[in-house]
């Protein structure tokens, strides 16, 4: 699977994916500049702070692709974002979730559920 950093040129693709998921396509305008994607399948983003904490969020996928393919792509992207955060010397990562798949992904990558099992943190 080929992974790459996202660019501003990808925003139209992400807007289309948001719309296909029944969400506001304008969400693509608020994505972090630090994102990773598997072309045509999925993307996620790293949000940084001026502290030792960062977060991973805005998981988005192309609903026209195979579910298993999306899962593997998002796992691959999650690993890349965690590595990028480590390289930036962050010490903890938060993961905001909006569904069962993201919840399970966070658990699989060692995040610990926070209050109401919505916010996860991971020491990195």
Cα shape = globular
Number of helices: 3
Main sheet? 7 strands, mixed
- Widest sheet: strand ordering: 1-2-3-4-5-7-6
Element pattern in H and E? EHEEEHEHEE
Count of DSSP E strands? 7
Question: What's the arrangement of secondary structure elements?
Answer:
Layout: E1 3-5, H1 11-20, E2 34-38, E3 42-47, E4 53-61, H2 67-87, E5 92-96, H3 100-108, E6 112-113, E7 119-123
Parallel strand pairs: 4-5
Antiparallel strand pairs: 1-2, 2-3, 3-4, 5-7, 6-7
Give a description of the structure:
The chain is of the alpha+beta class and 124 residues long. It is built from 3 helices and 7 strands; from the N terminus they run βαβββαβαββ. A 7-stranded mixed sheet has the order 1-2-3-4-5-7-6. Strand 6 and strand 7 form a beta hairpin. The model has no long low-confidence stretch (mean pLDDT 89).
Task: Characterize this entry briefly.
The protein contains three helices and seven strands. It has 124 residues and is of the alpha+beta class.
Keywords:
124 residues; alpha+beta; 7-stranded mixed sheet; 3 helices; 28% strand; globular
